[in-house]
Design a protein that fits this description.
Distance between the termini: 30 Å
Largest sheet: 2 strands, antiparallel
Structural class: mainly alpha
Number of helices: 11
Strand order of the largest sheet: 1-2
Order of helices and strands: EEHHEEHHHHHHHHH
Number of strands: 4
Radius of gyration: 20 Å
Helix content: 40-55%
Mean pLDDT: 92
Number of domains: 2
Length: about 280
């Protein structure tokens, strides 16, 4: 247990390949493809290496970058920090370029020059820290393979709670971190769930897969419109998941197909919870 993080599980900088920059507006960009985001972070990091560590130069870098980038963000009132780039020994995960441990800063903390300031960076923890149970956080964290999919899913408290609570109903016990280490089949099913955050086929292209997780109700998820859909096609246990995925259905058949995707994952989790399966 990490006593420095609310809820006992640290979700921000997990390891060399896993981190989340969602609170810095990392995913608040028009084109959220893995390739686009990775390239943006890489180019930004390379450019910042050449910036003198002087206040005016650092501020100019941030202002120029924001001016040059596409301003049509999915959440216009959610700030996107220009100082989030790639950090670590091999620049393998997102992090703050102004942090004292980042390349070229020589232990000096420049975060006070950012929009949120250094104090916010030190004390803010997203709601996932307190609204997800410890075992759910460890399952998502331990099943994630890379920062991109991890950052997209880890702030989705309602989605994770709905999916994993129903999983526990079906296996008739509490899920545990051990499930993802001793049962590869279970881990594979969780990873499929994580990847659905980006690949969900019933989310319109106009809806971003990114999550606005603050509690000010500026960009609340809409309830699913089932107008014209046979009520027998809709399951209450699926509805919360459909909503958090930003679903839009055109027919009973699409609702059934969406339900089958989720049901298949729950079946895999049930089987994986009791058996050793490799994927």
């Amino acid at each position: 247990m990490d006593e420095t993080a609310p809820g006992g599980v640290y979700l921000c900088q997990v390891n060399e390949n896993l981190s989340c920059g969602a609170c810095c507006g990392l995913y608040n960009i028009p084109d959220l493809s893995r390739e686009k985001l990775s390239r943006m972070l890489s180019e930004r990091t390379e450019a910042f290496v050449k910036v003198p560590r002087e206040i005016d130069a650092i501020l100019e870098f941030g202002n120029n970058l924001l001016s040059a980038e596409n301003k049509k963000r999915p959440f216009p009132e959610f700030y996107h920090c220009p100082y989030i780039g790639l950090i670590g020994k091999g620049r393998t995960r997102p992090g703050c370029l102004l942090h004292p441990e980042s390349d070229g800063n020589n232990g000096v903390d420049y975060r006070g020059l950012g929009y949120y300031g250094s104090m916010t960076c030190n004390i803010y923890f997203c709601h996932s820290h307190t609204e997800l149970s410890e075992n759910y956080k460890r399952i998502i964290r331990g099943s994630s393979r890379d920062w991109y999919s991890y950052g997209l899913i880890i702030t989705e408290t309602a989605l994770i709670n709905a999916f994993l609570s129903e999983t526990e109903n079906r296996i008739q016990r509490k899920t545990d971190e051990k499930d993802i280490y001793r049962n590869p089949g279970f881990t594979c099913a969780v990873r499929e769930f994580i990847n659905l955050k980006l690949t969900w086929p019933f989310r319109p292209s106009s809806v971003t897969p990114a999550n606005y997780f603050f509690k000010d109700k500026l960009y609340e998820r809409k309830t699913v419109d089932y107008a014209g859909i046979n009520s027998e096609s809709v399951s209450l246990r699926h509805d919360a998941i459909f909503r958090e995925f930003g679903s839009c259905f055109k027919s009973d058949e699409e609702v059934r197909k969406a339900g089958m995707i989720i049901e298949l994952l729950w079946e895999k989790l049930q089987k994986g919870a009791d058996n050793y399966e490799y994927c």
